[in-house]
Amino acid sequence: MSDDEDYDSEDILKQCLAAASSSSSTNIRGDAPQSEKRKRELWKRQQLAKEEQDKAKKAKKEKAREAVTTLEKGLSTAIEPTNKGFQLLAKMGYEPGKALGIQPNARTEPIKPIVKANRFGLGKPEEENKKHEKLISEMQERASKREEMLVDFRSQKSQLLAEKIISRDLSNAQKACRTQDVEAGMVEPRIPWFWPLKPPDETDVQDEEESEEETLSDGEKLMEITEYLRTLYNYCVWCGIRFEGPSELDGECPGNSREAHD
Ligand SMILES: [Zn+2]
Q1: Is 117 helix (H, G, I), strand (E, B) or coil?
Q2: Which of 147, 131, 159 is nearest to 219 (CA)?
Q3: How far apart are the CA of 247 and the centre of ligand 1, in A?
Q4: How far is the CA of 234 from the centre of ligand 1 (A)?
Q5: Measured in angstroms, how far is the CA atom of residue 239 from the centroid of ligand 1?
Q6: What's the 253 CA to ligand 1 centre distance in angstroms?
Q7: Residue-level pLDDT, tens digit, the chain, 262 residues
Q8: How far apart are CA 42 and CA 50, in angstroms?
Q9: Where is this region: Disordered (predicted)?
Q10: N or C: which terminal CB in the chain sees fewer CB atoms within 10 Å?
């Protein structure tokens, strides 16, 4: 008996294990492709739904267009003599091409309604809407132009300021150059504009030098004079001092520009 029981329980256990292993193995093998398949199906369904929506939209638009054309066509053609309304009017004495009623100058054609097929404001003719749009675009254009002018004005202002600083630096450099040159025993500047310009009445007529002066900007003149002072006298306009020698100038002065000395 106990053997049978043992056998039975072992058998059941084996069956259970077999069942468990087979079901889990199918799960592992079958799960991934199934979810992929589901995803694909879902995507397909979504695509189909989208296509259907697009088709419906197009059909709706087409239908609306058709309705407008039918309506316009109907409004532009006269009522047929077979029409009930026409027959009623004819019974009361109406003749085609003539006005209704007894007034002699009455209209002979019915009032034509305007078919509205756009989304512009109700009661506003299209021209007025266009006018409105034009006005808005003009306003926007003017605003952007104003902005441009403001930017121009600001850049002009900063440019003016930069020019002012350069001209002041040049004047300082010319004064320093004259001081250094005079100390070195010179009575005349190497180039006329290396020293501050004489008042107009004292200026001699020097066509050649004057024309050369004209070709250089204040910034270029400033560079020339500062280089001259550094090379000849180890003098830095920005530091405002004369150094003992070129190595001291190189070591202690940050460089030949206003920016370097900020
Ligand atoms: Zn310096």
Answers
A1: coil
A2: 159
A3: 13
A4: 10
A5: 4
A6: 4
A7: 444 455 556 666 566 556 555 544 444 454 556 788 888 888 999 999 999 999 999 999 999 889 888 888 887 787 788 888 888 888 888 887 777 777 777 887 777 776 666 666 666 667 777 888 899 999 999 998 998 888 888 899 999 999 999 999 999 999 999 999 999 999 999 999 999 987 766 555 555 555 555 689 999 999 999 999 999 999 999 999 999 999 999 999 999 999 999 8
A8: 12
A9: 18-66, 196-219
A10: N
